[in-house]
Amino acid sequence: MGRQAVIITGAAGFLGSHLCARYLSAGYSVLGIDNFSSSSEDSLNQFRGDENFHFFHQNGCDDWSQLEKLIGSSGYDIKYIYHFASIATPIRFEDSFQKIFEANTVGLQRALEFSQQVDARVFFASSSEVYGRAQAESLREAELGTVNTLGPRSIYDESKRAGEALLWSWNQYHQTRHSIFRIFNTYGPGMDSRDGRVIVEFLSKIKGRQPIHIFGDGKQTRSFCFISDLIHQIFELSQKAFTVVNVGSDEEVTIEELVHEMKKVTGSSIKVINNPSRPEDPQKRKPNLERMRSLLGHQNRKSLSEGLKIYWSFLNQTGGSK
CA 132, CA 117: separation in Å to the nearest integer? Predict the structure, then answer.
């Protein structure tokens, strides 16, 4: 039996780079894949010189023969494959629609095919967006949701749903046990300041002494999870048996409440500009985490207030998001 290793696609991304760091700290070898289509190679600087980190600059949809050669020569025992590669920022949905669809379908199929060769378990980074306009108080994994196939968010939402369908069907046909993480809003160090999602967008504007824009009346709710909590959940859950599980935080706040919390954390006076609602913007986004807790007995370690303080301090120390 060779040294235990994991493969992570999207390794230079926000979630992927944190997951790489977690596995390296646990003594694993990490084989990372990324083509920097929505990330920066700077996020990998922390791994330079680490003999247990191997990086492949390529599109995860392409042939994985380079990894196959390395594994064959090194004798690595590939335990898990995390398919986390996909553009996730809404401001890129329109101009990157083909890349998004391919990453969540073709790229996932590459991971599933490769798992057959190395006898590894695949984890697919799905999204809370698969629930669409579901209006339940909290979203259980059994909630089917309603997604508009002809809207501005449809390429991302439906490609995640297609990826889930592919993984489920693969499990049925091949009698495998690959799994799905439905990831809810996550924030923290490593986010691209141009990402466009609400916490990094607001804090970047506050740091630059610019007004922030709220779309709609600010009554829409979100649940925000600090990155270290999410990675802890993913790392621990990977050792459990499940098909699909929500991960994130169920500490629900309105966008108005988020702005109020940011005022306290930053000590800044914030100018708010209200804009019309964005098309297809969900009004509620809170996960039901009963399944996750039944598997882990886990409670998130950082409240929204604590997480915002850490992230605000990081932005001010580094002068940026990386």
Answer: 35
- 99-145 pLDDT, tens digit per residue, is 999 999 999 999 999 999 999 999 999 999 999 877 778 899 999 88
Q: Can you tell me the distance from the alpha carbon of 239 to that of 168, in angstroms, rounded to the nearest whole number?
A: 19
Q: What are the pLDDT digits (tens) for 272-286? A: 999 988 777 778 889
- What is the DSSP secondary structure assignment for residue 277, as one 8-state letter? P
Residue 233 token pair: 């959940």
**Residue 202 tokens, joined:** 């607001």
Comparing CA positions, the residue from 244, 225, 79 lying closest to residue 160 is: 244
Residue type, 18: H
Describe the chain by its helix, strand, coil percentages, rounded to 5: 40, 20, 40
* Residue 102 near residue 252 (C-beta atoms within 8 A): no
Of 281, 197, 285, nearest to 249 (Cα)? 285
Torsion from C-alpha of 92, 123, 221, 289, nearest 10 degrees = 180
What is the pLDDT at residue 89?
A: 77
269 phi and psi, to 5 degrees?
-85, 125
β-strand partners of 33: 9, 56
Identify which of 111, 130, 109 has the alpha carbon closest to the alpha carbon of residue 120. Answer: 111
pLDDT tens profile 39-82: 888 999 999 999 999 999 999 999 999 999 999 899 899 999 99
Say if residues 174 and 109 touch (Cβ distance below 8 Å). Answer: no
State the Rg of the chain over Cα: 19
